Amino acid sequence: MATAIQTRPAGVRWLVRGLSILACIALWQVASTTHANLGIVTFRNVPPPVEVVQSALTLLRSPKLAAHITSSLWRVFAGYGAAVVIGVILGFAIGRSRAASDLLLPPLELLRPIPAVAWIPLSILMFPSSELSMIYITFIGALFPIVLNTVHGVANVDRRLVASARSLGAGELAILAEVVLPDAAPSIVTGLAIGMGTSWFCLVTAEMISGQFGIGYYTWEAYTLQNYADIIVGMLIIGLLGMGSSWLLTTAGRLLMPWRSPKVAR
């Protein structure tokens, strides 16, 4: 017997989410103030939330905050924008052409497992400035998720739809724009969101080594100066920027894909 799906009111869901964050902060406060030692994990040197809030307020009053954030945002969106253009084009080519797949997919699969840290020395040798090398690192981080998800979406388009469009006289460009792209769009948007997250991860790694401004550089500098509260402030800023970027992408994806039915929130 079918049962009706019970959905929580939006207010209750947001209350639960807020309480979960408060619970995590409370546990953090207790572990830090009591210098909890859990065997393999110790909170002896971890600052409590109160100290982190004080450091955050100090950073908010500092003129360096804008320089750090704008530097990181520029590097991420420059590298990510290039990865979107190149990644989607490569994904469509590989997904639609067996020849392109045989030619392009093997080197991409060979390079994909290489971590961002391993690319940093080579990028310094390849590019004349550290700024370009950091942008390249963010580009590499975002490229592979975008390519692979685009390939997956394009290769799994229902062939009956393509055949039907072709039988009605549609050309290749019309098929790509009106059949392949709408059907592959959910997978592409997923790749874009994953690519944004990996782009931030790679940027922080690059800024720790080659940067002079940026959130990653700020976090690494705080560690070298033993300003432990500033380390957590930098981590939280990175998390907020990454979460906001991914939210913008998924929201834009939902607006651009009205045919995709939303999942029922439980």
TrEMBL record:
It holds the Pfam family BPD_transp_1. The keyword Transmembrane helix applies. The chain crosses the membrane at residues 73-95, 133-151, 200-220, 232-256. Residues 69-249 form the ABC transmembrane type-1 domain. GO terms for cellular component: plasma membrane. InterPro entries: MetI-like, MetI-like_sf. It is found in: Cell membrane. Gene3D superfamilies: MetI-like. Keywords: Cell membrane, Membrane, Transmembrane, Transmembrane helix, Transport. It is a multi-pass membrane protein. GO terms for biological process: alkanesulfonate transmembrane transport. Probably part of an ABC transporter complex. Probably responsible for the translocation of the substrate across the membrane. Belongs to the binding-protein-dependent transport system permease family. This is ABC transporter permease. The lineage of its organism: Bacteria, Pseudomonadati, Pseudomonadota, Alphaproteobacteria, Hyphomicrobiales.
